[in-house]
Design brief:
The structure holds three protein chains of three kinds. By secondary structure, chain A is an alpha+beta fold. Helix content of chain A is 18%, strand content 30%. Classes of the chains: A alpha+beta, B alpha+beta, C alpha/beta.
Chain lengths: 98, 544, 141
């Protein structure tokens, strides 16, 4: 599957396209299939997202899992600071990245 | 240390307003990201893996308590309560909001700080010896020269769109604590035969994907020709540095491709013409700036006696204290490499504490080192014990300066969008593995440097032991390098062979350090033994 | 191409600027256009004759044109020095300081933003061919 991601222009937060809007959680991300480029053009123009691009991912029971480790680190947060990730209460959250 | 006059203050204040205007135009859609990117970069604002990152300049690594406290305030108010001290003697924040950046910069400007040219293809923050003004072995304080260069390079209209970034370091002793020859321009202050102070120029060093040691191109540039000589070096680069391939765009490639002699010839030709243009500040300007760096009011009767009856204190003194030029005083290095910690990170509370301690014990002065530690340059020996106790309480007293656990590590894949592998977890595991004080001490001076990609922000080429993280079919892989040095015996490390997993590379490090202990003769450091014994023996031990 | 923005009082030069090669082949041309990477020093024998030198910026991040301009002004060129191509408002102040006195940007520049940008910095740290006094000179008279 193909996901669309980027950073919130104002805040810099990592965000994912959920089909209608942007979410901070990769679990919400929608498969954009062939439409990624068109959505990306439109969304960049409306200046919500910055530096957006399309990535590969696979669908899992826990939701979409980006193929590349870099995108998984982006989706979670720094593995060396669990307290600053999106899953601060989950001590094993970093396992998902690796 | 240097203090802004009305002109300096006006420059940074104006820059804040200019950036505020640029951010506003970006948010309003008047400029594209492509156009905005170089503008924000020239003000230190990157878009990193998780958010915007802001790099704040700490010119030649020197700052006072008030400035340090501002760094803590920024961490609390605009970031997530911590900052990361970098190998450029700067600090960076990982979670800055674009919309907050102008206000943040305005707060920095209120304490004579800025983020000007901490990124972008321009002349970056000038780095220097972290012991400047305190070291027993310096012939002069290099910082007035660095400040002259800072002002000259700030908003330089001809050299703000160079082929690539440009880094300058200035030192003033034969001992090199600033990796001087691994800079685009390295300057060593020297005396000529007439006893005048001037600058020896080394040009074309650097790390990155093609590491090079800068060759000397001129043995003496007089103080009042410093700027025109630097202009000549830069102009040849700006005109002829490669722009077709960003990986070949640094000045080291130009110097290498032209050859040192031809590059030097072109610089001298340009210089002959430029020194007539009135570009150099008068010697009175250097004198004006030098006054700010006058020695603090040392107690000339201070005693050299030290009570080392507390064994933990004695270990710290043995490891983290360096010789001061003034008797009765010492240079104390605060290690930001606690066991299992993140190299170079400090919480806002720790930053505040270091500010307090600088005011109380070090004539209100701190330094940031390229090894990501903090220095209190002027501590009375009789105050050392009290200082150590306060540091220890805050987790700031690891006694590991220059030992294997005092590693340099870039932010790596945990934070950096360029990285291929994580650096920090590796540094953490090695620091756990070698935590035993006796074992570290037995290994002695051992510079371990870890980069998460080929750009070499973690200085792996200059490590006695270097580690380079690479991407091997989507998984993290680590190459081991041996034999580098960033000191006056500058050398570039060589790759041992095939890469390792994270655990594998730690095992390999144990193998090479064991071999060192086996082969060591006399007082040899790891690097000395390696140089004598050669790579083959180490390879054999690692790969069998 | 929008109309050139000029900071000169004289009349715009009428002769179109030809390439460096064609200029060097002609005995009487008075306008030339140089591309990034061409050696501007080849023009030094002809500075008296030249009335317009256009320096092309293929991309705003390609800074070779700044050095080209400085060299021309250092050598006494007083004619029109025009930056053309990918010339953006945020680069104009530096271009002015390197001696450019006219601009032919590919895309129009908002005059209001330009005015703000050019007037922003009251002082400067380093001497260039624009002859403004650097801060060190103000400090020491």
């Amino acid at each position: 599957m193909k996901l669309l991601t980027g950073n919130d222009l104002k805040t810099g937060d990592v965000i994912w396209w959920n089909g209608l809007d942007w979410s901070r959680f990769v679990a919400d991300a929608a498969d954009v299939a062939e439409d990624g480029e068109a959505i990306l053009q439109r969304e960049e123009a409306s200046r919500r997202v910055n530096a957006s691009y399309i990535i590969d991912a696979e669908q899992t029971d826990e939701g979409p899992r980006p193929t590349h480790i870099k995108e998984r680190v982006r989706a979670l947060g720094p593995t060396v600071r669990p307290d600053l990730t999106l899953k601060p209460a989950d001590p094993n959250a970093a396992d998902w990245v690796i | 240390m240097y203090q802004y006059d009305k002109y300096d203050q006006q420059m940074v204040d104006t820059r804040v307003e200019e950036f505020r205007d640029q951010v506003k135009r970006r948010l309003a859609g008047e400029i594209t990201e492509d156009q905005f990117k170089p503008l924000r970069l020239m003000n230190g604002l990157y878009l990193q893996l998780h958010a915007y990152m802001l790099r704040v300049a700490i010119p030649y690594g020197t700052l006072n308590g008030k400035q340090m406290r501002m760094l803590a305030h920024i961490a609390r108010k605009y970031d997530r309560d911590y900052g990361h001290f970098t190998t450029r003697q700067n600090i960076q924040y990982n979670w800055i909001k674009l919309e907050d950046a102008p206000d943040l910069l305005a707060e920095l400007a209120s304490v004579e700080m800025h983020a000007i040219q901490t990124s972008g293809n321009c002349i970056r923050n000038i780095s220097s010896d972290q012991f400047a003004g305190a070291a027993a072995d310096e012939i002069a304080d290099p910082r007035p020269w660095a400040e002259i260069l800072r002002q000259w390079s700030s908003f330089h209209p001809e050299f703000s769109y160079l082929p690539r970034k440009f880094k300058i370091a200035v030192i003033a002793s034969d001992t090199d604590r600033a990796a001087m020859k691994l800079h685009d321009i390295g300057i060593q202050l020297v005396h000529n035969d007439a006893g005048e102070l001037g600058a020896k120029f080394f040009v074309g060093g650097g790390m990155g994907r093609t590491p090079m040691i800068a060759p000397e191109i001129r043995d003496f540039v007089p103080a009042d020709e410093l700027i025109s000589y630097a202009e000549a070096c830069l102009r040849v680069y700006n005109r002829y540095g490669r722009r077709d391939n960003k990986y070949k765009a640094r000045i080291k490639i130009l110097v290498h491709e032209l050859g040192k002699d031809e590059y030097t010839r072109q610089v001298e030709e340009e210089f002959a013409h430029m020194k007539e243009l009135g570009l150099n500040p008068p010697v009175e300007e250097l004198a004006r700036i030098t006054e700010y760096f006058a020695d603090p009011a040392f107690d000339l009767d201070a005693s050299d006696d030290l009570d080392l009856s507390d064994p933990d204190f004695a270990i710290w003194v043995d490891q983290n204290i360096d010789t001061h030029k003034q008797s009765g005083y010492a240079i104390a290095t605060i290690s930001l490499k606690p066991r299992g910690g993140i190299p170079g990170d400090a919480s806002s509370a720790q930053i505040d504490l270091m500010a307090d301690l600088a005011e109380q014990y070090s004539f209100d002065e701190l330094r940031v080192t390229h090894s990501q530690n903090i220095v209190l340059p002027h501590v009375k020996k009789s105050d050392l014990y009290a200082l150590w106790q306060k540091l220890d309480e805050a987790g700031l007293a690891p006694a590991n300066l220059d030992l294997i656990t005092d590693s340099i590590a870039c932010p790596g894949l945990d934070y950096c969008s360029l990285a291929n592998a994580r650096s920090i977890p590796l540094a953490q595991k090695i620091s756990e593995k070698f935590a035993d004080q006796g074992r570290q001490k037995e290994l002695g001076e051992l510079k371990l440097k870890i980069s998460g990609c080929i750009n070499a922000c973690g200085h792996h080429h200059a490590g006695h032991i270097g580690i380079l993280g690479v991407d091997r079919k989507g998984t993290e892989n680590y190459q081991l390098l041996l034999g580098g040095s960033a000191a006056e015996d500058t050398s570039l490390a060589k790759i041992t062979g095939p890469g390792f997993t994270e655990d594998g590379v730690i095992e390999a490090i144990e193998t090479v350090t064991d071999l060192y202990l086996q082969e060591k003769q006399g007082d040899e450091r790891f690097i000395d033994t390696y140089r004598r014994v050669g790579m083959e023996k180490f390879k054999e031990a690692i790969y069998g | 191409m929008v109309e050139a923005i000029r900071f000169r009082d004289d009349e715009p030069h009428e002769e179109p600027a030809g390439s460096m090669d064609s200029f060097l082949d002609q005995s009487n041309a008075t306008a030339v256009r140089i591309e990034a990477g061409e050696d501007v020093r080849q023009l030094l024998p002809y500075l008296e004759r030249l009335a317009l030198i256009e320096v092309d910026f293929p991309a705003f991040g390609d800074g070779r044109g700044y050095s080209a301009a400085q060299i021309l002004r250092e050598q006494g060129y007083t004619g029109e020095l025009r930056a053309s191509g990918d010339v953006l408002v945020d680069q104009l102040a530096y271009m002015r300081r390197c001696g450019f006195d006219s601009f032919a940007p590919e895309k129009p520049i908002d005059p209001e933003v330009m005015e703000r940008s050019l007037g922003r910095y009251e002082n400067i740290y380093q001497g260039t061919t624009d002859q403004r006094s650097p801060i060190w000179k103000l400090r020491h008279g």
